[in-house]
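Practice problem 4.
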C-alpha cells in the first residue's frame, strides 16, 4: 500500500495487505491496517475512518503517510459504491450522510499533507525567499549591518548541516544574496531524505527561521518617519539659520540654489503634501537645464505620461529631448486645449524636429484646433527653427485668421531666420494690423542687416 501504488481493495484482508505492502517496499506498520467494511453504511464507513484517523495520528514516516493516503483512497471508493440516502432538497436541515463523509475524507487528506515533510526543497525555497527580501528591500545603514550579521550567522549554521562554505565576501547586498543562493543550492544538492535526514532538515529550518527573524528586525527605510528618512539622507544638512517654515521648504530653497537635484527629487518623493510638491516642481522649473538629470527626466516623464502640465512645462525648460516621443502624442488632443498649449511650448523649447509636422497640422484651415492653441503651435515651429515650417507658416500669414495667429506666424518665420522666411514676412509692408506690422518691420531690419554693403 506504500506510496498509494497498491490496489486499495487489498486493505480488506488485513494480514495480506501488510504482506503486500512489505513486498512493495512500503511500510510494515500496516500489519494491523483496517479493512473496508463488506457492507458499506454511514456507520461502518465512519468506523473505518476512525481507524484511519488513528493511523494518521501515529504516522511518523512518509511511508506510513502513504499508507494512510491509500486507505483514504479505499474509503473514497467505498463511499462511491455505497447506497446512502440522499437529502431532501426541500429541507435545508436534512441530513446528508454522503456529503458529511466526503468532508471527513477531505479533512483527513488535509491532515496527511500537513503531516508530511518538511522537505529539503521547502528549506531551499525559504532561503531563496529570504534572499529576495535582502535584495529587494531598501535598508538603512544600520539595517544593512543587521542583515549582514543575520546572513553570516545563517551561513555558519548551515555549514554544520550541509557541506557548504558560504561566508559572504563582503557586506554588499550582492554578496549577501550570493551567499544565501549558495546555501540554497547546497541544500538542494544534498539529497536529504525527509525521514532519514529529518534532524538535518529540522536544523536547517531552525536556522532559516532565525535568519527570517533577523531580517524582520533589520531597519528599513519604510520603518522610519518621513523626516527621519530625510534627515538620514542628509536633506537637512544644508540648513544653517533659516527663516522660512516649514523647515523642509527652507532646505528646498537651499538645495535649489546649490543645484542639488537629487535632494529636490528626494523631497518630491518623500513629502506628500500638495504644498511641498508644488514647490519642488517650481524649483525644478526655475532650474531649467541645470535641473536636468537622468533621474529628474525619468520622474517628470512619468508624470507627463499622465498629462501633468507642470511636468510638461518643466521638461520644456530642461530641453529634454527624451520627452519628445511622449509629448508629440498630446499635440492633436483637441479636447484638451490647455494640454495642447503646454505641449506646444515645451516641444518648441526642446527644439523637437520630430514635432514639426504634428504642429504644422494644427495650423491647417481644416483643423479643428482651438483658436487659442494655434498661436502656440506657430511659435513652437519658430523655436524649433526647421525650414519645413516656412510654407505652413506663410499660409497662415497670408490667411484671414485673427491678428494674434498671423503675428505668431510672422514671429516664427523671423525665428527660422532664412532669407526666404524673412522675405515672406517682409512682403506685408502695407499690413494694417499693428501686431503683424511689428513683425514685418523686424523682418525688414533683419534683411537690411544681412544685405552686403558696398
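Answer key:
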Amino acid at each position: 500500500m506504500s506510496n498509494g501504488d497498491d490496489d486499495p481493495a487489498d486493505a480488506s484482508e488485513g494480514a495480506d495487505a501488510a504482506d503486500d505492502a512489505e513486498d512493495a517496499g512500503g511500510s510494515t506498520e500496516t500489519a494491523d491496517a483496517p479493512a473496508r467494511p463488506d457492507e458499506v453504511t454511514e456507520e461502518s464507513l465512519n468506523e473505518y475512518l476512525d481507524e484511519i484517523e488513528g493511523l494518521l495520528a501515529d504516522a511518523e514516516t512518509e511511508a506510513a503517510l502513504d499508507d494512510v493516503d491509500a486507505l483514504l483512497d479505499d474509503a473514497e471508493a467505498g463511499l462511491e459504491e455505497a447506497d446512502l440516502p440522499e437529502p431532501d432538497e426541500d429541507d435545508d436541515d436534512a441530513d446528508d450522510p454522503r456529503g458529511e463523509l466526503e468532508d471527513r475524507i477531505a479533512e483527513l487528506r488535509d491532515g496527511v499533507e500537513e503531516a508530511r515533510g518538511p522537505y529539503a526543497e521547502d528549506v531551499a525555497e525559504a532561503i531563496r525567499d529570504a534572499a529576495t527580501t535582502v535584495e529587494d528591500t531598501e535598508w538603512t545603514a544600520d539595517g544593512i549591518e543587521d542583515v549582514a550579521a543575520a546572513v553570516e550567522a545563517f551561513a555558519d549554521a548551515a555549514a554544520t548541516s550541509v557541506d557548504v562554505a558560504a561566508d559572504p565576501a563582503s557586506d554588499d547586498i550582492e554578496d549577501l544574496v550570493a551567499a544565501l543562493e549558495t546555501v540554497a543550492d547546497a541544500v538542494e544538492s544534498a539529497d536529504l531524505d525527509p525521514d532519514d535526514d529529518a534532524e538535518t532538515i529540522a536544523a536547517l529550518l531552525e536556522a532559516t527561521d532565525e535568519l527570517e527573524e533577523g531580517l524582520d528586525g533589520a531597519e528599513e527605510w519604510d520603518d522610519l518617519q518621513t523626516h527621519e528618512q530625510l534627515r538620514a539622507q542628509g536633506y537637512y544638512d544644508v540648513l544653517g539659520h533659516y527663516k522660512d517654515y516649514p523647515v523642509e521648504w527652507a532646505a528646498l530653497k537651499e538645495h535649489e540654489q546649490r543645484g542639488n537635484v537629487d535632494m529636490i527629487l528626494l523631497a518630491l518623493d518623500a513629502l506628500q503634501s500638495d504644498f511641498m510638491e508644488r514647490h519642488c516642481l517650481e524649483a525644478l522649473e526655475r532650474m531649467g537645464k541645470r535641473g536636468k538629470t537622468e533621474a529628474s527626466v525619468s520622474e517628470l516623464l512619468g508624470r507627463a505620461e499622465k498629462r501633468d502640465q507642470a511636468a510638461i512645462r518643466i521638461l520644456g525648460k530642461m530641453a529634454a529631448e527624451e520627452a519628445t516621443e511622449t509629448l508629440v502624442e498630446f499635440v492633436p488632443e483637441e479636447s484638451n486645449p490647455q494640454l495642447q498649449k503646454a505641449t506646444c511650448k515645451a516641444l518648441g523649447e526642446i527644439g523637437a524636429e520630430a514635432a514639426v509636422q504634428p504642429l504644422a497640422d494644427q495650423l491647417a484651415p481644416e483643423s479643428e484646433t482651438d483658436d487659442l492653441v494655434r498661436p502656440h503651435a506657430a511659435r513652437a515651429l519658430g523655436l524649433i527653427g526647421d525650414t519645413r515650417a516656412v510654407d505652413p507658416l506663410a499660409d497662415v500669414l497670408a490667411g484671414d485668421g485673427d491678428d494674434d495667429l498671423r503675428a505668431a506666424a510672422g514671429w516664427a518665420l523671423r525665428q527660422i531666420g532664412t532669407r526666404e522666411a524673412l522675405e515672406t514676412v517682409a512682403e506685408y509692408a502695407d499690413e494694417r494690423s499693428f501686431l503683424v506690422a511689428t513683425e514685418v518691420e523686424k523682418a525688414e531690419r533683419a534683411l537690411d542687416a544681412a544685405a552686403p554693403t558696398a
